[in-house]
């Protein structure tokens, strides 16, 4: 403890030299990602009850079930295939390749469609999907099987050394405690998840379920359905009351209530006519269906439930979708669903598949979208665009490449075609006069030399060149005949003896 003398000395030093500079102690720099000690090296619990989401959302809510299953069926359409070579121009691997086998049959009990559908259901309900890769003796490379893990039974274990991500996972089978779970290393677990801004592990933890923001709307929709069920079962006795102008004891009141429900209760007796004794009066105290606005409530719930899933209402046949859309734009809704929702969602799965499923011979996997009808463009607009490019002088081969048409190999694909009525125009719209081409100088005749053994090759080359020239002239004659036929079909006279293009242009 400092004495009075020490404090006086310190005050004199401050008066003479000012405050001393602070002493900075050299300490070891802490890692950027620092997690609490109680979170590391132990199983982290979830912040939501997935069982409730499954029971009250997917199991009993028709909107949630329809939206999730629509996405599951869509996700099972493109096949995951094994390729080699350049990813921009991949080559399909043979069916007996290990990668081809694992993507065709992930495990003995599931086909690819069943496998991907279940992953999509878990992904949209829990916000994540786990897959365990079974390897042969722990070796790296292509796994021998892939098994989907229930997200409710998988727990993440962060590394005790902060900043190193996840040290592993624990899978707890049904009926066992977490201490009896099976540890899994990160290299053998595919964890595909949705972004979770509330994740305390900064993106290393659990995904964010789409059911979280729609939970209240889902509860309201379930309550409305339950109310309608009770209404039809019990006749909604509380909607009104019976009034009598005399005193009634409890026994009489019970008899009146039971008698009224017996005669007029239930939806079977809605058409009956009620009769009250002298002095009796029925008074309605609740709102009817029109006053409660079930139509508006249904539309509100549908939009709030289907929005987080990214599924247009018309695709699942909901009331909102059928009222606001028609089947005429059904195809547009499907295309928008794939372009805005499914391509991005399947991209998350594809990225993880490509990372974990690689072979030693540089094999990789990609989704094949050629079987998705919504992504196949209509061929008619392509053909029209191709014809317009050809009419503008683009070769048939180049035009087909621009619009994306597979043009079969045939003669004339590299020849440009131009309409015969195109003439260059000068100022004022008058046709310009093209200068006549200068005559090429006539070469001096070369005396022919008798064929000899040493110039037989030159004679054969000259004959080949003559054949090629004749062939080119034959092709040109065919094209000129086509142009002449087109001229005859599309031209006529205007009454003054002038040849006029029936498509609108004047032939000169």
Task: Explain what the structure shows.
With 508 residues, the chain is α+β, with helices and mostly antiparallel strands. It has a domain at 31-236 and 286-376. Helix content is 41%, strand content 13%. It has helices spanning 4-17, 50-58, 62-75, 98-104, 112-126, 211-234, 250-264, 289-292, 294-309, 319-324, 330-356, 379-391, 396-403, 456-490; strands at 79-86, 89-92, 128-134, 145-149, 154-158, 166-171, 182-184, 189-193, 240-244, 280-284, 364-368, 491-493, 499-501. The strands form five sheets. Strands 2-1-11 form a three-stranded antiparallel β-sheet. β12 and β13 form a beta hairpin. It is extended, with a radius of gyration of 40 Å. The model is unreliable at 21-35, 493-497 and 501-508 (pLDDT under 50).
- Fraction in beta strands: 5-15%
Helix content: 40-55%
Principal-axis shape: extended
Cα-atom radius of gyration? 40 Å
Number of strands: 13
Strand order of the largest sheet: 2-1-11
User: What structural class do helix, strand and pairing data support?
Assistant: alpha+beta
Largest sheet, strands/sense/barrel:
3 strands, antiparallel
- N/C terminus separation: 115 Å
> How confident is the prediction overall: mean pLDDT?
75
SSE sequence, one letter per element:
HHHEEHHEEEEEEHEHEHHHHEHHHEE
> Stretches where pLDDT falls below 50 for ≥5 residues?
21-35, 493-497, 501-508
State the gist of this model.
The chain is α+β, with helices and mostly antiparallel strands and 508 residues long. The chain contains 14 helices and 13 strands.
List keywords for this structure.
single chain; 508 residues; alpha+beta; three-stranded antiparallel sheet; 14 helices; 41% helix; 13% strand; extended
């Amino acid at each position: 403890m400092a004495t009075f003398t020490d404090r006086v000395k310190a005050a004199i030093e401050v008066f003479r030299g000012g405050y001393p500079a602070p002493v900075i102690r050299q300490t070891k720099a802490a890692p950027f990602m620092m997690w609490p000690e109680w979170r590391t090296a132990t199983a982290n619990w979830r912040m939501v009850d997935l069982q409730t989401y499954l029971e009250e959302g997917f199991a009993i809510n028709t909107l949630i079930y329809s939206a999730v299953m629509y996405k599951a069926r869509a996700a099972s359409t493109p096949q995951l295939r094994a390729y080699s070579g350049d990813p921009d121009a991949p080559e399909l691997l043979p069916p007996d390749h290990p990668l081809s086998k694992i993507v065709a049959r992930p495990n003995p009990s599931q086909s690819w469609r069943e496998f991907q559908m279940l992953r999509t259901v878990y992904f949209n309900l829990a916000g994540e999907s786990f897959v365990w890769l079974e390897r042969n003796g722990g070796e790296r490379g292509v796994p021998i099987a892939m098994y989907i893990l229930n997200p409710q039974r998988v727990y993440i274990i962060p590394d005790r050394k902060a900043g190193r991500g996840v040290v592993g996972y624990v899978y707890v089978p049904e009926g066992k405690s977490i201490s009896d779970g099976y540890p899994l290393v990160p290299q053998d677990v595919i964890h595909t998840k949705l972004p979770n801004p509330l994740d305390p592990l900064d993106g290393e933890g659990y995904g964010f379920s789409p059911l979280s923001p729609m939970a209240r709307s889902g509860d309201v929709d379930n309550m409305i359905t339950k109310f309608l069920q009770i209404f039809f079962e019990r006749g909604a006795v509380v909607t009104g009351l019976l009034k009598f102008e005399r005193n009634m004891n409890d026994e009489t009141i019970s008899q009146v209530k039971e008698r009224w429900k017996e005669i007029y209760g239930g939806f079977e007796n809605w058409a009956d006519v009620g009769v009250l004794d002298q002095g009796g009066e029925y008074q309605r105290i609740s709102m009817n269906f029109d006053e409660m606005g079930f139509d508006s409530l249904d539309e509100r719930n549908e939009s709030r439930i289907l929005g987080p899933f990214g599924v247009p209402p018309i695709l699942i046949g909901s009331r909102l979708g059928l009222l606001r859309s028609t089947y005429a734009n059904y195809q547009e809704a499907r295309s928008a669903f794939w372009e805005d929702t499914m391509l991005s969602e399947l991209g998350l799965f594809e990225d993880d598949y490509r990372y974990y499923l690689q072979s030693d011979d540089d094999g990789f996997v990609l989704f094949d979208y050629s079987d998705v009808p919504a992504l196949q463009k209509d061929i008619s607009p392509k053909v029209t665009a191709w014809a317009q490019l050809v009419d503008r002088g683009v070769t048939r081969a180049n035009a087909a490449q621009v619009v994306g048409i597979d043009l079969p190999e045939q003669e004339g694909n590299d020849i440009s075609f131009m309409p015969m009525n195109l003439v260059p125009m000068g100022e004022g719209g008058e046709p310009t006069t093209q200068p006549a081409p200068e005559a090429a100088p006539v070469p001096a005749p070369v005396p022919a030399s008798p064929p000899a053994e040493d110039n037989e090759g030159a004679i054969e080359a000259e004959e080949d060149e003559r054949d090629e020239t004749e062939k080119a002239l034959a092709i040109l004659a065919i094209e000129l005949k086509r142009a002449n036929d087109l001229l005859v079909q599309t031209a006529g006279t205007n009454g003054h003896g002038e040849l006029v293009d029936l498509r609108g242009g004047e032939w000169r």
